[in-house]
């Protein structure tokens, strides 16, 4: 039986607004971030998309986003879908980060952070376990930009297109899940509810 996973990036945070590195560290949602989460909530309501289970990263910005989207319904927090840990770069200005996706592979491990492969592995393992749970037919999970990127990288199956590297806050990823395989259906920008693929 085909199942459905909706994965959402958290809303805009104070550190997003200030241009600070935000992986393992956290900051609160801004007024815009709250509004973005409300737009996602309204989208699901308008499309009559109902969920049987809810999951979020253990980080406050993700759980706050989920609580707004679901109007406070019960949910489960998962450490495995947290954002990448950037080690000593946490809380620093993003302008200090080296440029280019290659630096995210192993660069931050020398500063106490994570490598990309570890983030990818924990995301795939956790979301596969969630979707293999028998009573989980339509699931909503809230995570983070980097974590979502590495999850996508693992399951990407379109050789004609490049995976986007940066996603808008509260971007909505929709997947079919069947026979232990995720199939990306679309990525929506919450400000316009149009595809960014």
Automatic annotation (TrEMBL):
<protein>
    <submittedName>
        <fullName>Histidine phosphatase family protein</fullName>
    </submittedName>
</protein>
<dbReference type="InterPro" id="IPR029033">
    <property type="entry name" value="His_PPase_superfam"/>
</dbReference>
<dbReference type="InterPro" id="IPR001345">
    <property type="entry name" value="PG/BPGM_mutase_AS"/>
</dbReference>
<dbReference type="Pfam" id="PF00300">
    <property type="entry name" value="His_Phos_1"/>
</dbReference>
<dbReference type="InterPro" id="IPR050275">
    <property type="entry name" value="PGM_Phosphatase"/>
</dbReference>
<dbReference type="InterPro" id="IPR013078">
    <property type="entry name" value="His_Pase_superF_clade-1"/>
</dbReference>
